[in-house]
Specification:
alpha/beta; 7-stranded mixed beta sheet; 6-stranded antiparallel beta sheet; about 20% strand; FAD/NAD(P)-binding domain
Length: about 500
């Protein structure tokens, strides 16, 4: 151990003191040390504390390139799920106001939206959640430090304050749950200097105005969707396909609806540079990948939504030998969330091959805490995790996409039941229903086990959540047929679906 302290890492005397003391006594300051105060890290720490563990959480938010910073709670609370859903709701309310007139409501005068009023309300709600998380940790006797954490060995972490003050902490087990941050493209002049990301959009005090959203992930489409719904000019620049990794038929329905809704799309386009003009406007130059033609347009804001990078670089993983995937930067984890180094665990967005979803991180964190406390042995089940894309026409799904099912079972081994349906609430408002669609993907043979369910329509998340339970329980198409629907709802259409793609029959639902 003394040799280690004299080695290439050049440990400070205080670090060596903690390491040597722990080695000699076999005692640690904490049972569990969690690096990362996002949804997963908080869930893990609180669960462990309830099971009698002595727990500490380190969390520190590096400001975004544009200087945006926030409090405890991670991406979901501050710059993800929560503000995103509230801005989506704001946009839905705008559409509802238009629909209301068809239902007899007298709307006097022009309807307009004030960004600052919405932003203040949402940001105040987020701050209340930040405070709530701190109170919960205190109530559950979890120590919280607003400090950066990095590994010194399998039981030791160096914690550093904003001012640079260092502390060394030891724990029996260390959990890494630092999540990820949006990427900027590194090969486009002006991208970082003039662009923003999802780390910034939700904390803007003023409207972003005419906005170019670069990327076709769910983050890109959701952002462009609510901007359009707020009455702003929004364009999505797509290199190849939208919603990569999702069912591509459903992705097409989502983007078709968005185009009809008013969102512009620049398909097969690659940005080359962003320049700020003397007027203050941002001039974006891009290339059509099919024709090679160069195009330009000006925008008030450019939002980069081209993927996320795991927050692993500052964790000191190389010092202790934690294995990462060199291409993705994510930590290689086993099914029990353990890493290549004993007593060090990782889960959530930084885990290689793990879904980047808040609920999976929360569940994985709780189960890990129980295992580490010797109070359980259940592993996280990452199969059949439901999710929803909160675009203007919402898209919910659980299980396999049609492409995945065909790859796994062959085209002849899969039966797809589908339906185009008309939400009752769209009828009086005379809204376009051509993209309201659902499909249930089943094994064709044996008992026709349901492999995947996909739904585009109102309240897609609420619809999908209930059916996700069925997939967890091994539901079959026969189970679905025996389920009585609630009338009149969109969800009941799932229980009534009976036309197969293979048949070639018209899948449009008629009647009630």
């Amino acid at each position: 151990m003394a040799a280690l302290c004299r080695g290439r890492h050049r440990w400070k005397k205080t670090d060596c003191f903690h390491i040597l003391t722990r080695a000699l006594t076999g005692k640690h300051e904490y049972d569990l040390l969690v690096v990362g105060g996002g949804s997963g890290g908080l869930a893990c720490s609180k669960e462990a504390a309830q099971l009698g563990q002595k727990v500490i959480v380190l969390d520190y938010v590096e400001p975004s390139v544009k200087g945006t910073k926030w409090g405890l709670g991670g991406t979901c609370v501050n710059v993800g799920c929560i503000p995103k859903k509230l801005m989506h709701q704001t946009a839905l309310l705008g559409t509802a106001v238009k629909d209301a007139q068809k239902y007899g409501w007298n709307i006097s005068g022009p309807v307009s939206h004030d960004w600052s009023t919405m932003a203040d309300a949402i940001q105040n709600h987020v701050r209340s959640l930040n405070w709530g998380h701190r109170v919960q940790l205190q109530d559950k006797k979890v120590k919280y430090l607003n400090m950066k954490g990095s590994l010194l060995d399998e039981h030791t972490v160096k914690a550093v304050t904003k001012a640079g003050k260092e502390t060394t902490l030891t724990a029996k087990n260390i959990v890494l749950a630092t999540g990820g941050r949006p990427r900027y493209p590194t090969n486009i002049p002006g991208a970082m200097e003039h662009g923003i990301t999802s780390d910034d959009i939700f904390w803007l005090k003023k409207s972003p105005g005419k906005t170019l959203v670069v990327g076709a992930s769910y983050v890109a489409l959701e952002s462009a969707g609510f901007l359009t719904g707020l009455g702003l000019d929004a364009t999505v620049m797509v290199r190849s396909i939208a919603l990569r990794g999702f069912d591509q038929q459903m992705a097409g329905l989502v983007t078709d609806y968005m185009e009809a809704y008013g969102t512009r799309f620049a398909w097969n386009s690659l940005p080359k540079r962003v320049d700020k003009l003397s007027s203050g406007a941002l001039q974006v130059t891009w290339v059509d990948t099919q024709t090679g033609a160069e195009q330009k347009d000006t925008f008030d804001s450019v939002l980069w939504a081209v993927g996320r990078a795991p927050e692993t670089k500052a964790l000191g993983l190389d010092k202790v030998g934690v294995q990462i995937n060199e291409q993705t930067g994510k930590i290689v984890v086993r099914e029990d969330e353990s890493t290549s180094v004993p007593n060090i665990y990782a889960f959530g967005d930084i885990g290689e091959g793990r879904p980047e979803l808040t609920p999976t991180a929360i569940q994985a964190g709780k189960l890990l805490a129980r295992r580490l406390a010797g109070q359980g042995d259940e592993l996280m089940n990452y199969d059949n995790v439901p999710t929803t894309v909160f675009t203007p026409l919402e898209y919910g799904c659980v299980g396999l996409s049609e492409e995945e099912a065909v790859r796994k079972f062959s085209k002849d081994g899969v039966e797809v039941y589908h339906a185009f349906f008309k939400p009752l609430e769209f009828t009086v408002a005379e809204r376009d229903v051509s993209q309201c669609y659902l499909k249930v993907i089943c094994e064709r043979h044996r008992d026709q086990k349901i492999l995947g369910l996909h739904f585009t329509g109102p309240n897609a998340g609420e619809v999908t959540q209930g059916f996700a339970l069925g997939l967890q329980c091994g539901a079959t198409y026969s189970h679905l047929q025996k389920t009585v629907g609630i009338h009149p709802t969109c969800a009941e259409e799932v229980t009534k679906v009976n036309i197969t793609k293979r048949s070639g029959l018209d899948a449009t639902v008629t009647g009630c």
